Amino acid sequence: MITGIPDKKRGVERLAGTIALLISFLVVASIFTSLDIYPEYINIHEDLSYLSENLERLQLNTWIWFLNSILIILLGPLILMSFLPYGRSSSYLAAFLISTTGILYMIYSVNGHNLIFLVRDYLKSSGTETDIMAGLSYKIMISKTNLQLAAYTLAGLSSIILGLLIASTGHLPRFIGWLAIVGGLIYASFGWISTDNILFTIGRLFFILALILLGSFLLLKGLVWREKKQ
């Protein structure tokens, strides 16, 4: 233990670890409850019919991301408080990117709730009103898609910076850092190309595994001080 670092720091690390594990669980849950739709206006009525048939699943996925967004926002300052006592100024950047990712996912989930309301109104509408509901729904679906892609990029960058922080310091096992870096690189790049790509799936697995390991070590062991080599 470093002189001057209070014992309550372990409490911060444990909380950060618990939240990281919860985030990883919710990310997996979001994958299994997601509804993959690539919105095109020509198919909007078919898309809305599909969403109406799977409305409960859409609601579940939306609430998962709303809860997860809150946890991701909280994880940022907890990572900062965990690493900063070791003199790592780059933890500011990691914390900022993590919390910003959470804010994006919160906006994404709010758009999901708006889409749910519009789908319900669409089912009750008729004539011209149906076309208006379809047009509004299409705009929200496009917004959700763009927010998701932006969140992939920020999540990837967050993972890269946090991975570099871990790999360069050794305060946690360095292989966790390298997993986070590889997963983050793939997440940030292939998210814009194709989420169906096998490389994106591999990157997502690396990302989730790194998050689980990060959470487990923070919860059970905490950061380990390593003296800088002269």
Keywords:
single chain; 230 residues; mainly alpha; 7 helices; disordered N terminus
Average predicted confidence as pLDDT = 86
Largest beta sheet, briefly? none
Bulk shape? elongated
Number of helices: 7
What's the β-strand tally? 0
Number of domains: 1
Evaluate the radius of gyration: 20 Å
Query: Uncertain spans, ≥5 residues at pLDDT below 50?
Result: 1-5
Helix content: over 70%
- Span between termini: 20 Å
Explain the overall architecture:
This protein has helices spanning 8-33, 44-53, 55-83, 90-124, 128-169, 174-190, 198-220. By secondary structure, it is an all-alpha fold. It has one domain (8-220). Helix 6 packs antiparallel against helix 7. It is elongated. It is 79% helix and 0% strand.
Topology:
Layout lengths: L7 H26 L10 H10 L1 H29 L6 H35 L3 H42 L4 H17 L7 H23 L10
Helix pairs in contact: 1-3, 1-7, 2-4, 3-4, 4-5, 5-6, 6-7
Quick overview:
The protein has 230 residues and is mainly alpha-helical. The chain contains 7 helices and no strands. Helices cover 79% and strands 0% of the residues.
